[in-house]
Design goal:
781 residues; alpha/beta; Leucine-rich repeat, LRR (right-handed beta-alpha superhelix); Immunoglobulin-like; 13 helices; elongated; disordered C terminus; binds 2-acetamido-2-deoxy-beta-D-glucopyranose
Length: 781
């Protein structure tokens, strides 16, 4: 078996490519034997183990004259020398007559010398037995035609780390036996398909580290035997669809350290035999649906060290029946893996996800990987709550235990790599605990949405006419709904499920957008301007051909029955001349004028509720609503709730009947910039209205006392509770921008939701619902 193959089957993806450089496994070698010949001065002559490029073992008479500052070939070289080591000297030429007196010379190493012309070695008569020639780290700049014609048996040629900027089309002519060619780390700017015509047996090609920005179509078509291709560090920005055409035997491919922004899916379809793929250190932002599909021989995939990777989307990896190892590590912004990201990976055994920004790994992922044996999740900001239940220790907790055990029977045997370093960072009470030590009883059974901090920057600059792409993702249980709010306060939702039509004007209006702020943003009233807005199902907002008017604060909201999380991004639109800040500044100006257009109205009043609505025409993510019962002589507390961005109405519930209330709306952007929120914070005046709740209908004689008493009792109880909660110091600064919003009181007119009563009575498994996931109420006296 060939060394390349042996190591290709090893368990380390990086070794696959490392193996190409160091083909022989050291350590298990037999020791060197003495060789009694007249050896050149200062050199060492020994019989040493040696493996041919096709892995045949030899006891090789070896002359080692490395590191001797030689400028000339030392003499005498014994006639039966097999291996001649001359690396790290000062040679710029060789007496080729001496070499030709060595009929058994098989391996010649002149790396790290000063050769600038390859012919000084290969000229005149042939070195018929030479299999391996090391010329790395010399000063070669050009390879002329027929450079190696005198080396008909050569199997390995190492030319890396020279200054090669040109190679003649027929430079490699005559190398019919060549198996391995390293021309990486030179100055080549193009790849000439002609080079490879002379190399029908080539198996390994290292081409990386050359400033080649684009590979030609069908460039490698002559390399019918190629099994390993390394294209690392080349500056590739993309790959032509037919760039890899003809590489029928290719098993291992590395794109390490390039500038790819997408997975080159089309090009990869041309190499169906691929087993090992390394895409590490590229600029890929998303692994998208269908990126890796039906690669039926793929065994190992590396998606590590990507600064910009934020999300692995639904069905990103699908039907890879041979995939056993998947590495997605050291991606500082990767915070989201879709619960159905991995489909039909029936043989995946090892899933490496350490050192990302993941808060959880959804149980669905574990369930979808029947062969999974080990998972690595350490060095992630893990959230030990509902999404992580599969990882928790089982305890006597009848209700939860049952569901988990039936669903995750297989997932439970998965081994954690570095369990001592796999720690919870949320919730606070479980912080720094080892995930595997936390019991399922300690983990909450459901969880609020959370938009990871790392997924969205706080500022994004876009060139006028360019495309704005903002990725918002959130995990929660129950699964959250996501929507975006534009600077003008418009709510943009993804297209409803099953509808292939992207969010256009039609679907926007069907989602209940109500633009009423004609005065401040006339472009919002018409449908037309929103044709170029798109919200993708996963939560990505795309705006093509953006204009300066669209600069401003965009807020993503993720909401489920338990509450919501929001995150805002300031978008600046600038042209080539103007400075970045301009867009944001312009928006700020617009923002300063907003107050006049917000008007709080009472839409409907009941006995125990009131529906309030307002219009602002701006995205004001830190808006609050406060209310207070007014009695002539009693001091009553004021309650406050946050209003989700994009919301323009609120159902205030649990009011007392026949009572006067005063309600105030405190508009706040809070997120434009620190400066803006500070300067506006004090000057803003809340909009207030008063109303009186309806009278309770004349009671039936038979029910005379009880109902009213009960209702009052409940209300009083609630108030007491609220006071208690507020008294415990659970509060959030109004100015604080991107925090989590625990929205239990929020009542959208279109979608009525849980109210306090529900929260209190529906607490899981009988225990009190915890503050951290509950009311956002606080006293505001
Ligand atoms: C070269 O190797 C062959 C076979 O290993 C051997 O018979 C021959 O003597 C060697 N030639 C010299 C000059 O050592
Ligand atoms: C709720 O808080 C209590 C302590 O106040 C704690 O014992 C319990 O584990 C918490 N439950 C959840 C679901 O966070
Ligand atoms: C939009 O708001 C107006 C008045 O504020 C209201 O009459 C209309 O019914 C609303 N439309 C929708 C679709 O909610
Ligand atoms: C507002 O809340 C009350 C009390 O829960 C409810 O009866 C009423 O139907 C709600 N109104 C709307 C429009 O959701």
């Amino acid at each position: 078996m060939r060394p390349a193959l042996v190591l290709l089957q090893s368990h380390c993806l990086l070794c696959v490519f490392g193996a190409v450089v160091v083909p022989v496994v050291l350590g298990s070698l037999p020791p060197a034997l003495p060789w009694h010949v007249s050896c050149p001065v200062r050199c060492v002559c020994q019989i040493k183990p040696w493996f041919s490029p096709d892995s045949v073992y030899h006891e090789a008479p070896t002359v080692d004259c490395s590191d001797l500052l030689l400028t000339k070939l030392p003499l005498p070289i014994p006639e039966n020398t097999h291996t001649l080591r001359l690396q790290s000297n000062l040679l710029s030429g060789l007496d080729t007559a001496v070499l030709h007196g060595l009929p058994n010379l098989t391996d010649l190493d002149v790396s790290q010398n000063r050769f600038s012309h390859v012919r000084t070695i290969t000229q005149s008569s042939s070195l018929l037995s030479l299999l391996s020639l090391h010329l790395e780290e010399n000063h070669l700049s050009h390879l002329p035609e027929d450079s190696f014609l005198s080396l008909p048996a050569l199997q390995e040629l190492f030319l890396s780390h020279n200054n090669l900027h040109s190679i003649a089309p027929g430079a490699f002519t005559g190398l019919d036996s060549l198996l391995r060619l390293h021309i990486n780390n030179n100055r080549l700017t193009t790849v000439d398909p002609q080079w490879f015509k002379a190399l029908p047996r080539l198996e390994v090609l290292m081409l990386g580290g050359n400033p080649v920005e684009a590979l030609p179509e069908r460039g490698f078509i002559a390399l019918k035997s190629l099994r390993s291709l390394v294209l690392g560090g080349m500056g590739l920005r993309g790959l032509a669809e037919k760039a890899l055409e003809g590489l029928e035997g290719l098993e291992s491919l590395s794109f390490y350290d390039n500038l790819l922004t997408k997975v080159p899916t089309q090009a990869l379809r041309r190499v169906p035999g691929l087993k090992f793929l390394d895409l590490n250190k590229n600029r890929i932002k998303l692994i998208e649906t269908g990126d890796f599909q039906d690669m039926i021989h793929l065994k190992e995939l590396g998606l590590n060290n990507m600064e910009e990777l934020v999300s692995i989307e639904r069905a990103a990896l699908e039907n890879l029946p041979e995939l056993t190892k998947l590495e997605i590590t050291n991606n500082p912004r990767l915070s989201y893996i879709h619960p159905q990201a991995f489909l039909q990976l029936s043989r995946l055994e090892s899933l490496m996800l350490n050192s990302n920004s993941l808060s959880a790994l959804h149980q669905h992922i574990m369930l979808s990987l029947p062969s999974l044996q080990e998972v690595s999740l350490h060095s992630n900001p893990l959230r030990c709550d509902c999404l992580f239940h599969w990882a928790a220790k089982q305890t006597a907790h009848p209700h939860i235990e049952k569901t988990i055990q039936t669903e995750t029977q297989t997932a439970r045997v998965v081994r954690f790599i570095q369990p001592q370093a796999t720690l919870c960072s949320e919730p606070p009470e479980l912080r720094a605990r080892r995930v595997r030590d936390v019991t399922s009883g300690e983990m909450s059974a459901s969880c609020l949405p959370m938009i990871p901090v790392s997924s969205l920057p706080s500022y994004v600059g876009v060139r006028e006419g360019g495309k704005l792409v903002l990725h918002c993702r959130a995990l929660a249980d129950p699964p959250p709904e996501l929507y975006w709010v534009t600077p003008s306060g418009l709510k943009l939702s993804p297209p409803s499920k099953g509808s292939p039509v992207p969010t256009s004007c039609k679907s926007l209006t069907s989602e209940g957008i109500n633009h009423t702020s004609a005065s401040s943003a006339p472009d919002d009233t018409a449908c037309q301007p929103f044709k170029h807005y798109q919200v993708l199902p996963e939560g990505t907002l795309e705006i093509s051909k953006i204009t300066p008017r669209e600069a401003g604060l965009y807020t993503c909201v993720a909401e489920n029955a338990l509450g919501a999380d929001t995150r805002s991004v300031t978008v600046g639109v600038h042209d080539r001349i103007k400075k970045r800040k301009r867009g944001a500044a312009a928006n700020l100006k617009k923002f300063l004028q907003f107050r006049a257009d917000a008007r709080l109205e009472v839409r409907e009043v009941g006995e125990h509720f009131a529906i309030l609505s307002w219009q602002s025409g701006h995205n004001l993510p830190s808006t609050r609503l406060s209310w207070q019962a007014i009695y002539s002589n009693v001091h009553t507390p004021t309650y406050t709730t946050r209003i989700l961005a994009g919301t323009q109405s609120f159902n205030l519930t649990h009011l007392q009947a026949e009572t006067f209330y005063r309600v105030c709306l405190h508009l706040g952007s809070g997120e434009v910039t620190k400066h803006a929120s500070r300067s506006l914070g004090g000057s803003k005046k809340p909009q207030c209205v008063s109303f009186r709740t309806k009278d309770v209908p004349e009671p039936q004689p038979s029910l005379q006392l009880n109902p009213q008493l009960t209702s009052t009792a409940v209300t009083l109880l609630l108030l007491a509770l609220i006071l208690l909660l507020a008294g415990q110091g659970w509060d959030t600064e109004p100015g604080e921008g991107t925090g989590k919003h625990h929205m239990t009181l929020h009542q959208d007119i279109q979608r009525p939701k849980a109210v306090i009563i529900n929260q209190k009575t529906k607490g899981r498994d009988g225990h009190e619902p915890n503050l951290s996931e509950k009311l956002l109420l606080h006293q505001d006296c």
